[in-house]
Amino acid sequence: MLAAPGCYSGFDAEANGGGPGGSAGTDSSGDGSDGDGSDGDGSDSDDPGGPSGAELPAPAARVARLTHTQWENTVQDLLYLDAPTGFSDAFRADPSNAGYLFDNSAAALEVDQALWGGYQRAAVDTAQLAVTTPAILEAILPVDGGDDAARADAFVRDFGLRAFRRPLEESEVSTYTGLFTGAAELFDDTEGFDAGVRLVIETMLQSPHFLYRIERSTEVEDDVIALDDYEVAQRLSYFVLNSMPDDELFDVAAEGTLRQPDVLEDQARRLLADPRAKEVVESFHDAIFDTESILGAAPLPAVYPDAPDNLGELAYDEFHTFIDRVMVDEKGGVHELFNSNVTYANADLAALYGVDGVSGEEFERIELDPSERRGVLTQIGFLAANATGAQPDPIHRGAFISERLTCSELPPPPDDIPPIPSVEGLTNRQAIEELTEQPGSNCAGCHSVFINPLGFPFENYDSTGALRTMDEGLPVDTATTVILDNESHEISGALELADLLAASPSVHACYAKHWVEYASGRPEVEQDHALVERLATASLDGNASMEDTLVEIIKSTPFTYRSATELEAE
Amino acid sequence: MNRNRKVSRRFVLRGLGGAAVALPVLESLAPKGATAGGTSTPPFAIFLRQANGAAVAQNTKVGNEPERFWPASTGALTPDSLQGRALDELTDFRDNLLVVGNVNMENYNFADGHARGAFQCLTAQPAAVPGAGGSSEAGGESLDHRIGAELNADGRESMFLYAGSAGGWLGGACISHRGSANRRAPLHDPVLAYQQMMGIDSDQFATLIARQRSINDLVKSEMDTLLGRPELSTQDRMRLELHQQSIRDLENGLSCDLSKDQEAALDGLAAGHASNNGDEVLAAVRAHMDVAALAVACGYTRSVAIQVGNGNDGSTRYRNLETGEEMENFHFLSHRRLSHGGDGEIISDSDVLHHYVDRQFAMAFRHLLERLSEYVMPDGQTLLDAGLSCWFNDLGSGPGHSFRNLPNIIAGSAGGFLRQGEFIQLGGDGTNHARFLNTLGSAAGLRDANGDLISDFGDPAQDRTPLPEMMA
C-alpha cells in the first residue's frame, strides 16, 4: 500500500503521486515477505516479474499449512461427512499477522508443539470416528472382494490421493499398506482390516503431505514453473471452497486437461456455484469489512431506546445475506457493492430503514429509498460498527474507506491524542473538526484531507444506522471535498460518495487486489500489479462480476504457474 | 460465516466433580535439570502482563488523581506502606516481593503507545517496521521465549498463555515472539494448555503412545524427505523445521496429570477464556496459573508468559468492586473516557474504577503465588521462591500511555538471586528496561558463553547490563 503522503505535513497530491485512491495496483512497496525486494518499474530485465505488463507469478511458499478452517473442511470432505467434525476447535488459534487481512498467510502458518499435539489428537479422533461409523467406511473403502491385501492397496491409493491431493508414489503406497501389518495390536478396540484403515487414517492425517498444501513441480520453462494438474486442482479448490478437490476435480486432474483454459474455467464456475463457495466469499468480505466490529455494535440504550438489543447480530446477518444474494447468487460486482439499493432485513432492521411491510424475525428482500441509501456503506452494519454508543464516528468511517476500500495507507495517529473539546453546542462534525482540523496541527494533514471528508458524508446516519437530519439541534452537514484518484470531488453526501467510489479506478483495483492477496495467501507484491490492473479495468469498464474476477484470477498465469526465482534463491 | 462448529471436549475431560484445585506436595514432580547435588530447584520465570497502565498519581481529565498503586515508601514493604494501594492485596506475600519502580522503556517509534508497550515489554527491541501503529510487529525475540529455548529440555518453547477475547487491538496475543516480526500463537484455553503439557489424554495413553511412536517414525521420515528437497526456500524450511522440532518436543513430553476432579475444576475455570466479562477472564487467568504452576513443578518448562487482554485490553469489562457490576471496558476506563480515542464523554470516577482493575489483577497474581507456595520441592523450597513471577504492566499510566515508571511486581527470589520484601526505585531517568529484562533473564538462569549473567538481551543500542540494585 501507499501511505497517504500529505498526512501531518500538508498535502501535495501532485508531488506525491496521490492520496487515497492512488495506490492499489501501482505501488512498489512489495512488502510481501517472499518478494524479491525489487523496486523497479517492471521493465528491469532482472525483475522476475518480467516485461512490463506481463502477468507472471511471484515467488511463493511451496509448503503452505492448512488453516484450521481448511483442516476442518478437508476432513469433512475426506470422510464424505455432512457436517464438520469440530475436532479443530481444540487447535490453538493461529497468531495474528499484522498488515494482512486474511487467515491464510502461508508465511505465518506454523506447526508449534501445541498445534502438533492438537493435530495428533484430532487424527486419533478422526480415525476412530471413521472406523466406528459404517457410513464412512462404506464411502471410503473399496468393496470387499475377499483379498485383504488388494483391498488395502486400493484403499491406500484412493484415500492417499484424496488426503495428499496427488497420487501416491509407489514407495508411499508400500509404506502405508505396510501399516496394515500388526495394526490390530496397536488398538484396544479395533480389529482386523479396520485396524489397518484406522492406522492409515491416523497416520496420513499427521503427514506433512496432508497438513501442508505442497507444490513439488520444479521444471523451469520460460522462467516459470508450470504447476501440474493436481497442484492446479489443489490451488483451485482451496481458493474457491477452502477445502480439498472434490471427486470430479480429481478426475479432471487425472485426465490431464485441467490446465486447458476452457476446462479450468468450467471447473472454476462449477465450484463457484457450490454452496460452500459462499462461505469463502463471506469469509473474504468478513475480513475486508471487519464484520467482527459489526457484531460489536452497541448503541447506548439511553440514547437509542428503540434500537434492538441485538443490533450487531442483525446487521451482521444482513451483511452476509446481502453478500450471498447480491454478490454470489445475482453475480454482483463492485458496482453492486456500492450502488445496490437492495438489502435484507427483518422487522427490527426494516424499522431502522424506515421501510414498512416487514414483520417478524425472518429476513426479507427490501428495496431502500434511492434518495436515502445506496450500497453497502449505507447499510446498518458499516454505519453502526463505525460509531460510538451515542454518535457516528466519522473518523473511523473515513479511515476505513481510505484503508480498506481505496487501499491507501494512513499513518497511525499520534500517541497522546488531545482531548476532544466540549461538544456542547457543536454538532458531532464540528466537534471532530475542532479536534482534528486545527490549521497547522499534526492532525490536520491527514484528517482534513483524507480521513474526515470520507466520514462526514455519513453524518446523516446515526449510531444505529438510522437517518437523521439534526444533531445537537443543528442541521447535519454531509457536504465535503473528497480526493480520490488524484482528483478533488465536491460531494453533497453519502450517495454521491457511493457513486464516486463505484466509479473509482482505485476502488476497483483495491477490491481486485484483496482477492489476489487472498488467492495467493500473502500480501500484494509488485508482480501482482499487472493482473490487478487487468481485473480492475474489467470490473470498472466491463462491469465484471465478482465471479468473473475470481475466474480470471484462476485462469491467470500467476495462478497456474510458480515463479522460478525461489529455486535460485537457495 | 464458516461452518457451524460444535465444541468438542470429549477427549479432554471425562472427570466429574468440581472440587477446587488443591494441589498436594508433589515430591515426585521435581523439575528436570536439578543441579548435580540435587539440592536446589532450577529457577524459572512466569510473566503476567496487564495492559493500560496503573492508577497512579497523575493529573488527568478527572482531576488530580492520588496514588493508588505504588507503595507509600521505598524500603521494606509493610502493611502500612501497602495500605490503600492495589498492592495491599499482596500484603501476605510482602516478604516474597520485590517491587521495582522507575523502570523506563525506550520511546521507540511504534506510533502507538500500546504497540510500543506490548511489543517492547518482553523484547526490549524497537519495532520491526517503525511507525506502523496498530499494524506493528515486535523487533526481536521475547525474554520468555529465550528462557524456554535456552533452558528447557530440547529447547522447548516457553508456554504462552492468553485470556480475553480473541483478536482486537494489535491482533490479540502480542507479547511472545520467536524473533523479529515472528509472533507466537498463544494457548487460549487453559484446558488446551494442560492437554499440551500432558501430551495426550491419559485414558488413551498406553496403546496410543505405542502407536504414536510408530506414526512419528513414519512422519519424521516424511519430514526428512520433504526437508531434503532442494527447491525449498529458507522460509519453507524454517517452518518445516519448527514442525519437526515440535514432533520431537512432544515425543519427549512428560506426563503431568491432574486428577479427574482437578481437571473438572480446571475446565470450569477455563470456560470463559475468550469472554469479555472480567470475572470470567480472570477465572481463566487463574486456570492458566494453575497450569503454569504445574508446568514448572513437573519440569515441563522454565518459562511461562500469561497475557491478559489484547493490545489495549479494549473489550474486557471488569467488575466494580464496590457495586459488583460490570464496568466499561478497561481501555475506556484507562482513557477516563467513553472512547478508544481522545473523544467521548468523561467517565466519572474512572480513576477509582481503574484502581479496581489493578486490584483485581493483584488478586489474580496472589492466586499464582498461593499456587506456587503449595508446591514444596525435594530441597524443601517452595516453588514460589525457586523462581520468579513478574506481574507487569506495559504502560506506566493510562491516559498518558507513559513508557516510564512501569509497574513491575516480582515475587520469588529465583533461588536467592533477587532481593525480597522491598520497594526499590531505580536511579536515573534514562532507559533501563533492557537492563531490567537482562536481570530477570539472569535470575531465571540464563548465562552467557562464559557462564556470566547475560547482558546481551534486547536492543544492542541500549545498556543491557543486569541491575545490581535488584540482586540479593
Explain what the structure shows:
- The complex is a heterodimer of chains A (570) and B (472).
- Chain A is mainly α and 570 residues long.
- Among the domains of chain A are: 63-213, no CATH class; 279-502, no CATH class.
- Helix content of chain A is 46%, strand content 7%.
- Chain A is built from 26 helices and 13 strands.
- In chain A, the strands form six sheets. Chain A has a three-stranded antiparallel β-sheet. In chain A, strands 1-8 form a two-stranded parallel sheet. Chain A has a two-stranded antiparallel sheet with strand order 2-3.
- In chain A, a hairpin with a 2-residue loop joins strand 9 (470-471) and strand 10 (474-475).
- In chain A, helix 5 (148-164) packs across helix 6 (170-178), helix 5 (148-164) packs parallel to helix 7 (192-204) and helix 22 (505-520) packs across helix 23.
- The two termini of chain A are 28 Å apart.
- The model of chain A is unreliable at 1-52 (pLDDT under 50).
- Chain B is of the alpha/beta class and 472 residues long.
- Chain B has two domains: 44-199 and 258-470, 3-Layer(aba) Sandwich (Alkaline Phosphatase, subunit A), CATH 3.40.720; 200-252, no CATH class.
- In chain B, 31% of the residues lie in helices and 10% in strands.
- In chain B, the strands form three sheets. An eight-stranded mixed β-sheet of chain B has the order 4-12-5-11-10-1-9-6, with helices on both faces. A two-stranded antiparallel sheet of chain B has the order 2-3.
- The radius of gyration of chain B is 22 Å and the shape is globular.
- At the A-B interface, helix 2, helix 3, helix 7, helix 12 and helix 19 of A face helix 4, helix 5 and helix 6 of B.
